[in-house]
């Protein structure tokens, strides 16, 4: 009983402290305004007028002060960064005929790797604990026995994913292809010539003075890097919009060997893509879904261990695959800490920052053995979109940020329904939250993505208008079945 | 030496493109086990092959129709969890402690079925004019059961596009899961779904219904039962004709009833044709004083009050005894043969079959037809509504093969003929050893029926 009452008391103390610190300025202003107001009322209108007339305002004074005010406000408004709005986005929904159930995946694996039963066993164990569901999709070229990844089939997959997503985006936003000012495509592992952005320009006959970029090799965090590039460009170009395509083309990257660490991506990566429309036009202010508040990029590449942890290389037989090192999770934790240190001061309320600062000072000066205070990010954000890189990543982040099951639900359900779709998974997760009807006006969303290098990028969005359900999108036909319980191990 | 050279010089008209697995569009409830009926278990060592030929008037991009068929097959498989499952061997759980019998079951694990895509040179018409048994079997993909049966697909589909127009769809499956009737119903369901996006006759999966009314005892003189008893206890010698030496000829009989001079509707075309071949093959074997052993393969769904869309084995093999004179005029001989056949077809009744089913529940074994001639009745598989995948694809021809011990020493399969040839016409596929085949196709009685040769046994 005393435990309960003491914890309840503690909770109220904490609430009181937070309210006090976060609204400090307001609390300070109230007595001042009250005093001034009472003075004014006491003085009465006659006295006020006499005070004003005694100030001897001359025309010059008035002109100079008003000029100063206008000058300062102009400088302020000119130097304020342009707000970047996310008008709308669309996620690619793969056709049901590309579905890969576990049994089919394992059967193919067994037939193709028939000389390496240990590798097949390994894949089965990965799949059992992966957190994926039975409805994830692989591109048609991977369904062959043996898989037939050719350049042509990779281009076909790219066209299928990107064009479908773009057409959906055009329909949703009413955007005309000729109006696109900036086009950024990010696809890490498939980089043909001409580039994917050139492919889009050719298909939709975009303008010749379009600013197009194609980012490749930047891993699963490239989606947020593209947003960063778009944001910087939109500062320079007034009244423009930018279309970002985030995708990962699976076809050419199917690992054909039997080295275990390299078979892991085969089990987890699935087909997916997203198209996002950003704009800095004032007219889009009313219809935009989100507003970009912050975007923080941290790169741990200077550290050798981080650099080598996700490496594309050839195995002993010459097959190219992506080697994931065993200490991936520790490195991800380090990268996240670096990112949080930068983003914390930008987003955390004053109460949390004060606590963190005092804990830091305490550890430095008084006693290094004090537990480091982990700021409570749940105070700063209503929703979290953690890159669905794998079950381990989500578990690790849930633990280190002390998030509840509901906060990471979007990530877990996206991993279950769509698998690891690389850079576009953040958009699927955002779509999930909207489809569940949880997105209200002025809710803040934190998107965190990890990528090879090792990078940790995060973006903070603020919801501009309450999003009505039912929404159309990749979750429209299955959202009633979610959230589902995902067992620790699925017996295959 | 010369024949080998010839084979090397011959071009392979069928070109393999790829093999993949087609899964259903909806995920299945995991862990369901489907049991086989006793009629399924008894057919285990055999296989079925079907080939459907379609001609078209529209030109298409190569690969276009295959893609469409692949997608509609994925939707069709939603109704056939038994096809997308895999075989497991498990105990029934009902036996006493000592006899632990491992029986086949299907675990519904959503693994899908294999599909092979191929291209063929020429057009369907050209192909049909000059095809032989070996070439036709190239249009159907089949893999023998793997050592690890859990990864083996029981059903295989091959879609072959002809470069000058037309399509051939080959379906092969293990006889443990299906008989030719339900394999054809599966094709029909797939065609309906592709054409009109709805399935007219979804399959029914359920165990064989138990006997309706208790019988006082086994019927005396149950010939069907005694025949199965003999076969299942391996008292029948296996066929001494190797599979490879069988040749197949396909004949079209325009109006067998009229040729036989029978205008009564009491005799079915199957009975006439079975009688005809019984006589011709016996003569080809050199039998002068008797007719050879023959078994009829009959669908007993109607008899057991089951719907035609019941999925599973529901055909029984009944030997036909012949006790009448043989050295008579052809017409009279035919009349006698048909009479004996009718003794079986008209008198096969519910209780006889139920006795067999009940006996099989407590006895294992697989049926073999030794060196008998086996006549299979599939003439009722036609339907007033044609089986089309698309509006312009017209069914041109249908072939059916059954391989395994149940095929005996020779097979006669009576199929409906594609529309346009008359409701009473039939297509008959005859598989015999080479020497007997040459004699049968020259038999006078056979020629008096004016059959049209659709597929010869040599190029």
Q: Can you list the strand order of the major beta sheet of chain A?
A: 3-2-4-5-1-6-11-10-9
Specify the CATH class of the largest domain in chain A. Alpha Beta
Mean pLDDT of chain A: 90
Strand order within the widest sheet of chain B? 11-10-12-14-15-9-16
The chain pair forming the largest interface, with residue counts per chain, is: A-B, 20 and 20 residues
CATH architecture of the largest domain in chain B: 2-Layer Sandwich
Global geometry of chain A? globular
User: In angstroms, what is the radius of gyration of chain A?
Assistant: 27 Å
Number of helices of chain A: 15
Helix content of chain B: 25-40%
What composes the largest sheet of chain A?
Answer: 9 strands, mixed
Task: Count structural domains of chain A.
Answer: 2
By CATH's scheme, which homologous superfamily of the largest domain in chain A applies? Thiolase/Chalcone synthase
The CA-CA distance between the termini of chain B, in Å, is: 18 Å
Find the count of extended strands of chain A (DSSP E, 2+ residues). Answer: 11
Organism (chain A): Capsella rubella
Keywords (chain A): Acyltransferase, Membrane, Transferase, Transmembrane, Transmembrane helix
Protein name (chain A): 3-ketoacyl-CoA synthase
GO cellular component, one term (chain A): membrane
Topology summary:
The complex is a heterodimer of chains A (492) and B (459).
Chain A: H1 2-22, H2 24-53, H3 59-79, E1 85-91, H4 102-112, H5 117-128, H6 151-173, E2 182-187, H7 196-204, E3 211-215, H8 222-236, E4 241-248, H9 260-268, E5 272-279, E6 290-299, H10 304-308, E7 310-314, E8 320-324, H11 328-347, H12 350-366, E9 383-386, H13 391-400, H14 409-418, H15 425-435, E10 444-451, E11 455-463
Chain B: H1 2-9, E1 14-22, E2 32-35, H2 38-41, E3 47-56, H3 64-76, H4 81-84, E4 86-91, E5 102-108, E6 113-120, H5 124-130, H6 133-137, E7 155-162, E8 167-174, H7 180-196, H8 223-232, E9 246-253, H9 256-260, H10 269-284, E10 294-299, E11 315-320, H11 330-347, H12 350-361, E12 373-377, E13 393-403, E14 410-416, E15 426-433, H13 434-441, H14 444-447, E16 452-455
Parallel strand pairs in B: 6-7, 10-12, 12-14
Antiparallel strand pairs in B: 1-6, 2-5, 3-8, 3-13, 4-5, 7-8, 9-15, 9-16, 10-11, 14-15
Helix pairs in contact in B: 3-7, 10-11, 10-13
InterPro entries (chain B): CAT-like_dom_sf (IPR023213), Plant_Fungal_Acyltransferase (IPR050317)
Pfam families (chain B): Transferase
GO molecular function, one term (chain B): acyltransferase activity, transferring groups other than amino-acyl groups
């Amino acid at each position: 009983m005393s435990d309960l009452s003491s914890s309840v008391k503690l909770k109220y103390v904490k609430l009181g402290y937070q309210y006090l610190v976060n609204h400090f300025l307001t609390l300070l202003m109230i007595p001042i305004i009250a005093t001034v107001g009472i003075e004014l009322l006491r003085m009465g209108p006659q006295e006020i007028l006499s005070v004003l007339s005694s100030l001897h305002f001359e025309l010059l004074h008035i002109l100079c002060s008003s000029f100063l005010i206008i000058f300062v406000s102009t400088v302020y408004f000119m130097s304020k960064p342009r707000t970047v709005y996310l008008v709308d986005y669309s996620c690619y929904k793969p056709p049901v005929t590309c579905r890969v159930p576990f049994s089919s995946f394992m059967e193919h694996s067994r037939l193709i790797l028939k000389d390496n039963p240990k590798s097949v066993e390994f894949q089965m164990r990965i799949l059992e604990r992966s957190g994926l569901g039975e409805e994830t999709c692989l591109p048609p070229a991977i369904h062959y026995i043996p898989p037939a990844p050719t350049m042509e089939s990779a281009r076909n997959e790219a066209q299928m994913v990107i064009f479908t997503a773009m057409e959906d985006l055009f329909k949703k936003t009413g955007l005309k292809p000729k109006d696109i000012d900036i086009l950024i495509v990010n696809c890490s592992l498939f980089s043909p010539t001409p580039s994917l952005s050139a492919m889009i320009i050719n298909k939709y006959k975009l303008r010749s003075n379009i600013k197009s970029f194609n980012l490749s090799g930047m891993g699963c965090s490239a989606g947020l890097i593209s947003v960063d590039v778009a944001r910087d460009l939109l500062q320079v170009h007034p009244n423009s919009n930018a279309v970002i395509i985030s995708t990962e083309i699976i076809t050419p990257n199917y690992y054909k060997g039997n080295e275990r660490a390299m078979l892991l991506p085969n089990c987890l990566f699935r087909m997916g893509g997203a198209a996002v429309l950003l704009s800095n036009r004032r007219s889009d202010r009313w219809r935009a879904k989100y507003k970009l508040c912050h975007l923080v990029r941290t790169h741990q590449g200077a550290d050798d261990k981080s650099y080598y942890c996700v490496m594309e290389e050839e195995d002993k037989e010459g097959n190219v695959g992506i080697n994931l090192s065993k200490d991936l999770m520790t490195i991800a934790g380090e990268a996240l800490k670096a990112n949080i240190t930068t983003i914390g001061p930008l987003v955390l309320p004053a109460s949390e920052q004060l606590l963190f600062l005092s804990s830091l000072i305490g550890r430095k000066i008084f006693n290094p053995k004090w537990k480091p205070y982990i700021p409570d990010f749940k105070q700063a954000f209503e929703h979290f979109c953690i890159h669905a890189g794998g079950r381990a990543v989500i578990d690790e982040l849930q633990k280190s940020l002390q998030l509840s099951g509901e906060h990471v639900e979007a990530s877990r359900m996206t991993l279950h329904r769509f698998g690891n779709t690389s850079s576009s998974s953040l958009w699927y997760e955002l779509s999930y939250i909207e489809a569940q009807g949880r997105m209200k006006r002025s809710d803040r969303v934190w998107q965190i993505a990890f990528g090879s290098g090792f990078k940790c990028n995060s973006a903070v969005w603020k919801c501009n208008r309450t999003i009505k359900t039912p929404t159309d999108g990749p979750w429209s036909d299955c959202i009633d079945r979610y959230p589902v319980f995902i067992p620790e191990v699925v017996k295959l | 030496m010369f024949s080998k050279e010839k084979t090397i010089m011959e071009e392979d008209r069928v070109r393999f493109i790829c093999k993949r697995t087609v899964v259903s569009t909806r995920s299945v409830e995991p862990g369901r086990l489907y049991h086989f009926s006793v009629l399924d278990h008894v057919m285990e060592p055999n296989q079925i092959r079907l080939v459907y030929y379609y001609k078209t008037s529209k030109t298409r991009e190569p690969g276009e129709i295959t893609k469409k068929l692949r997608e509609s097959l994925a939707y069709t498989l939603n109704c056939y969890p038994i096809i997308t499952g895999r075989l497991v061997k498990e105990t029934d759980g009902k036996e006493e402690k000592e006899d632990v019998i491992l029986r086949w079951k299907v675990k519904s694990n959503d693994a899908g079925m294999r599909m092979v895509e191929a291209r063929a040179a020429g057009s369907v018409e050209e192909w049909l004019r000059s095809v032989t048994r070996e070439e036709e079997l190239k249009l159907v993909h089949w893999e023998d059961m793997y050592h690890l049966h859990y990864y083996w697909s029981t059903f295989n589909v091959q879609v072959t596009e002809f470069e000058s127009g037309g399509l051939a769809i080959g379906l092969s499956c293990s006889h443990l899961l299906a008989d030719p009737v339900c394999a054809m119903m599966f094709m029909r369901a797939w065609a309906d779904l592709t054409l009109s996006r709805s399935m007219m006759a979804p399959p029914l999966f359920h165990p064989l219904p138990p006997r309706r009314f208790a019988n006082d005892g086994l019927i005396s003189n149950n010939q069907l039962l005694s025949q199965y008893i003999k076969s299942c206890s391996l008292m029948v010698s296996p066929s001494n004709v190797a599979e490879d030496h069988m040749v197949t000829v396909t004949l079209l009989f325009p109006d067998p009833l009229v040729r036989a001079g029978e205008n009564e509707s009491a005799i079915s075309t199957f009975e006439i044709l079975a009688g005809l071949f019984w006589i011709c093959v016996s003569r080809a074997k050199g039998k002068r004083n008797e007719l050879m052993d023959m078994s009829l393969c009959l669908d007993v769904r109607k008899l057991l009050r089951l719907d035609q869309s019941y999925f599973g084995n529901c055909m029984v093999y009944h030997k036909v005894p012949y006790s009448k004179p043989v050295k008579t005029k052809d017409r009279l001989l035919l009349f006698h043969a048909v009479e004996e056949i009718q003794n079986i077809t008209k008198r096969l009744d519910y209780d006889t079959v139920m006795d067999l089913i009940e006996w099989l529940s407590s006895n294992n074994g697989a049926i073999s037809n030794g060196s008998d001639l086996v006549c299979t009745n599939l003439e009722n598989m036609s339907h007033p509504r044609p089986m089309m995948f698309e509006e312009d694809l017209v069914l041109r021809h249908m072939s059916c093969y059954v391989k395994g011990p149940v095929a005996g020493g020779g097979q006669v399969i009576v199929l409906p003929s594609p529309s346009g040839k008359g409701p009473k016409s039939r297509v008959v596929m005859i598989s015999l050893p080479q020497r007997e085949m040459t004699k049968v196709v020259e038999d006078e009685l056979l020629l008096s029926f004016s059959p049209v040769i659709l597929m010869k046994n040599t190029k």
